[in-house]
Amino acid sequence: MQVQIFQNKEALHRAVAERIIAEVKQNPQSVLGLSTGSSPIDTYANLVRDHQTQGTDYSRVRTFNLDEYVGLPGSHPQSYRYFMNEHLFHHLNIPMENTYVPSGIGDLEKECEAYENEIKRQGGIDLQLLGIGTNGHIGFNEPGTPLDSRTHVTRLLQETITANARFFSTVEEVPTEAVTMGIQTIMEARQIVLLAYGSKKAATIRDAVRRPVTENVPASVLQHHPDVALYLDEEAAALL
Q: Sorting pLDDT into bands at 50, 70 and 90, what band is 37?
């Protein structure tokens, strides 16, 4: 793993955005894997700012998001489709038909299979952006998820539900299940960039980087990937 440590979040997000921008400029038909939650918001803001000022072209880029809540349509303000539209897609010149987010509605088994097939049809993911949960999850692959998993429906652990409750009016409103890319799906990306910041992530980063690979810390599997870069602030890197 390559580890890059930054003095503050602002520098970290600029660097991650620059990595994505460089990928898009080098390969205008890039397939990007994208994440949601609070971690990448400022990274996306940097991408939008660059597009508006420098004109980086996303017209031929394709994107695949990691996950979506079960039961929330894309029009729901807390759905990840809505999140991506608001924070990124509506501010770039990317055709909406080139942006893929898993569906949490309908026949979920068929939706998961179709999502995997679409990733393959588009040639696989060139660069996958990840965050990391305090319990080591990547996407919504909670501890105990098989390392050979594909896109699937997962039941969220209570700690994940509690952590995500800040985005909802009450914890009871947080969905208990999600559709997520599987760990094997993530590992097939050609490049992986993981960003993490804050002292709450320090122990998790240590376990993912320094401890043996285990399903109990899903992010630890990244040790087996040939091209992984961790972008961390000093607090998240404190235990390395």
A: confident
